[in-house]
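Sample intake — Regulator of protease activity HflC (Stomatin/prohibitin superfamily)
Collected from: Archangium gephyra
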Amino acid sequence: MKAPPTTYVMQFKDGRVKREGPGLSFFYWAPTTTVVAVPLASSDVPFAFNEITQDFQAVTLQGQLTYRVADPKLLAGLLDYSVKPSGEYASEDPSKLEERLVQIAQVRARTVVQSMPLREVLVQAATIEAKVLSGLRETEAVRMLGVEVQGFALLSARPTPEMARALEAEAREALQRRADEAIYARRNAAVEQERRIKESEIATELSVEAGKRQIREAQIAADIAVEEQRASFMERWSENERKAAEAKAYSLEKTLAPVRNMDWKVLMAAAGGGNDPKLNIALAFREMAENAGKIGELNVSPDLLRSLLSAPSGNQGRHG
């Protein structure tokens, strides 16, 4: 017998272990000796599970399970790993180990998958791997076999073809909706930007108009102030003129007071009006008009009237 380092060998003779260990090399008498060879190297076991998700959808899980024998003595006590002189196993028990491990892994995977809807099963492979691997390491059935589970890799999770097509169509619709929403968002952003630009332009125009209105109002206020000032000046000027007129009237009243009751003839004589022939003739005509009732007949020659109208005042003395 010559075993590699990855094989644990036990030599039984008369029902007792004569020698054991990994990678042993020895001679033995075949008719009285039983040799047990348990592989210690890690192995990969492929699997394919058909399970039902939480929302009652069929899904197929494919992957591989990695394990190694941690306690070869314990495993050799449960399964027959004895070999023939030719090196072949004497029974089919070594192949049953992988079947048992796959069955245990399927039970743990079923528990995980049935707690998740189909969508999560299809996209959360890492979560499923972690939960199944943790369950396998804590399972008593695995420890009783003397086996250590090193890995559980989920390579694919596939729904039925009909559901796959439905999910693909739904995904395409969702992508199309997102594309439409993106287009709408871009258009909406453009419209919003245009609205902001219009609002800015309107605000600018309103600001300009407000400035113009303020200028007009300031001009109007200035004109009103000028008019009010002008009105105030006119009022003061009128008041001053009124006061001046009152002063003149008062002065004239005081000036004429001494002569108010005097005869106008006396006043005319005092003013020197007696030296004007025309004035004297005019006064004579007035006297005659006042005493018209006492005058029977008055003859005025044309020459006298002509001389009064055309002659200089120096010549009036002769006609008088």
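Post-analysis note: Residues 313-320 have pLDDT under 50 and may be disordered.
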